[in-house]
Design brief:
Helix 2 runs parallel beside helix 7, helix 9 runs antiparallel to helix 13 and helix 10 crosses helix 11. The chain is an alpha/beta fold and 339 residues long. It contains 17 helices and nine strands. Helix 6 links the parallel strand 6 and strand 7.
Length: 339
């Protein structure tokens, strides 16, 4: 595994380029603002006409252009719109305006890996992916730190693709923590698996199941919320800080014993077998195909599932309890009015 740090990247490279970031969501706003604070003077935000993010970008003093204008202007073009929108946007508004020698970057390899986007051969294509949400990337940068990141090179038409990708990674703060070299395939498949089996799908379903089990057994919803959702952060923070052993050092012996004897009863060999099936669907393209088809149909299933999740009783209880935790509302990572 090759890891790059501050001394391995030349910030002057990206500072000398005209850089456009397509999209101003969680990742987009962090990339643009971190680059500006790193001395990248020629940086613009590319948004489609009517984008709700335009006012947020302009409020930060950023110049906003269309994706087509960005493709014509930029030396480096980072595409950070949602995965499901990238292929059509690229085909209609970016590809027709590209010129030889430009550098096209992605924050996730999904569209390139699954051949939804097939860049022309005379442009550089790379990936610079912070390992964390954009709001965390921005917060860490402002505190003088950075998130670990990944880089991958898909095409090196100019011979400078890796140097520019590393310079970009330095500008957004990733080389402060370390940038790992990977491939578009590895980044895409491991990222999707982690999201689905553990970080989003796995944890959310575990929290919901625990909450529902306690409530159905007659315990107060508020108690179920605290034990199954609220305290998840406390445990994850300990694991994040120093690994599982660090967490076990901090909790009670009773809790640790319960971990060993009851954890495998819940997440057992059947769960691991199902994880392998999830990974197979990612590797063979089944998940990608289903997600593309879902969006082509207008995302009815996705929107219905989102609505069911948002209306789950745990959300109603949580909103009430979070109102009691004023300290948790200060310095929020996610402020929907700004980012």
């Amino acid at each position: 595994m090759k890891v790059y740090y501050e001394q391995d990247a030349d910030l002057a490279l990206i500072q000398s380029k005209k850089v456009a970031v397509v999209g101003y969501g969680s990742q987009g706003h962090a990339h643009v603002l971190n680059m500006r604070d790193s001395g990248v003077k020629q940086v613009k935000v590319a948004l489609q006409e009517g984008s709700a993010s335009r006012k947020k970008a302009e409020a930060e003093g950023l110049e906003v252009v269309t994706p087509a204008e960005a493709a014509q202007w930029a030396d480096v073009l980072m595409i950070l719109v949602p995965d499901e929108k990238q292929a059509v946007l690229y085909a209609n508004e970016i590809e027709p305006h590209l010129r030889a020698g430009q550098h096209i970057m992605f924050g996730h390899g999904f569209n390139v890996h699954y051949n939804l986007i097939r860049p022309r051969a005379d442009v550089d294509v790379s990936l610079s992916a912070p390992k964390g949400p954009g709001h965390t990337l921005r917060a860490q940068y402002q505190m003088g730190f950075g998130l670990p990141g990944l880089i991958a090179i898909h095409q090196d038409a100019t011979g400078t693709a890796q140097a520019v990708a590393l310079s970009y990674s330095k500008a957004i703060g990733n080389t402060r923590a370390g940038v790992i070299e990977t491939s578009f395939r590895e980044e895409t498949e491991t990222d999707l698996f982690g999201e689905q089996a553990v970080l989003c799908g796995g944890i959310v379903e575990l929290i919901k199941a625990g909450y529902e089990t306690l409530v159905e057994a007659g315990y107060a919803p508020e108690m179920a919320y605290f034990e199954c959702l609220h305290e998840t952060k406390l445990i994850v923070d300990l694991i994040y800080e120093g690994g599982i052993a660090n967490m076990n050092y901090s909790i009670s012996n009773t809790a640790e014993y319960g971990e060993y004897v009851s954890g495998p009863r819940v997440v057992n060999s059947d769960a691991k077998a199902n994880m392998k099936k999830v990974l197979e669907d990612i590797q063979n393209g089944t998940f990608a195909r289903n997600w593309v088809l879902e969006n082509q149909a207008g995302a009815p299933g996705f929107n219905a599932m989102r609505q069911r999740m948002n209306s789950h009783p745990i959300e109603e209880v949580g909103e009430k309890l979070r109102g009691m935790m004023h300290w948790a509302q200060n310095d929020r990572l996610v402020d929907k009015s700004r980012n």
